[in-house]
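Figure S7 source data.
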Amino acid sequence: MGKRIIEAVIRGACSLNVYDVGETIEGLAAKLGKKPSEILKLNSNENFFVPIELLRSVLRQVIEESDPRIYPRDEYKMLREAIGGLTKIPPECIIIGAGGDQLIDLVSRIFLREGDEALSIEPTFTIYERCVKVQGAAYRSIPLKEDFSLDVDSMLSTITPKTKVIFLCSPNNPTANQFRREDVLRLADEFEGPVVIDETYADFSGKTLIDAAIDLDNLMVLRTFSKTFGLAGLRVGYLAANRRLARTIDERFQMPYSVSTIAIRAALKMIDKWPEIAGTLSDIRRERDVLVAELNSIGGVRAFPSETNFVLFQVNRDSKAVYRALLKRGIIIRDIGRVLKFDNCLRVTVAPRPLMERFIRELGEVMCEGA
Ligand SMILES: Cc1ncc(COP(=O)(O)O)c(C=O)c1O
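Tokens for the predicted pyridoxal-5'-phosphate complex:
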């Protein structure tokens, strides 16, 4: 028996979910006796369309220009201004953070206390539940409708005086669909607390509520550099909200140096590359549509439409067996299991053509083998 306070925290933590990052490239390569370059990592919706040579050259320039002895400061302002230019919102409405995850945690810390409740949807990104529960608050999730749209009436009728925040994800992970603007706005209108809409994948759908966030009292939009800009490893994200709320969060709650100088400067340089990034976004949309069609042409596979950089699909057998069979071939995807009434679902990241060709070929073989 260890120290009482430590023991209580460790025991209490058993009810928190462990975020499953899945197999890693190096780990799987070592297990299979393959080279890391032979592993296809398609389980975390990372963006392999942004050329690695471009990112490395940006990082080299950033290193040359940075003095790591000094805390970042002006960089935050510069990045807020650049994001403001890109998204057409005032820089004062932006809060920079260490990726979407850190901002979800920040919002949870600000609005939730023990005994409170947070409302979300089912299925969705699991970090909301983790952050809510860390605060000692209860997490309540309302299933999406069969067509994956929001069940606004059920959500509204679940709100109690204890409900302090609503988390939505649009386009949603893992269902890959965008929610109707009017549905989200109705929730924001009828709820007294913040509605956080996680738009991690919005650049792949081309639709956003960021314009509404700056005007409304309680809508916050979460965006990240991880997917659109291919900077998942650097950890940069931002939250957009009305000026008063954004300044309060930024000045009173966010840590003063939450993101490193290197990461902020790299994000700034990537914004300058927007024309190239916009090109990769159209490539992703095109490849995604091809992938959905190809998946649907494999017997026993049914792909759902996607407005993201990943595709959810259902197989007519145990999805875990399909996941494992692909893993043995050096392909990492995500086993999702049941999604509402659809059992045996899997999720795969959209990647450039040669990678998709290999994935489709090997999935076809796995399905023929009767995994
Ligand atoms: C819906 C959703 N929100 C947030 C994140 C985390 O993004 P970040 O890398 O900015 O922390 C992810 C990552 O996959 C995600 O799918």
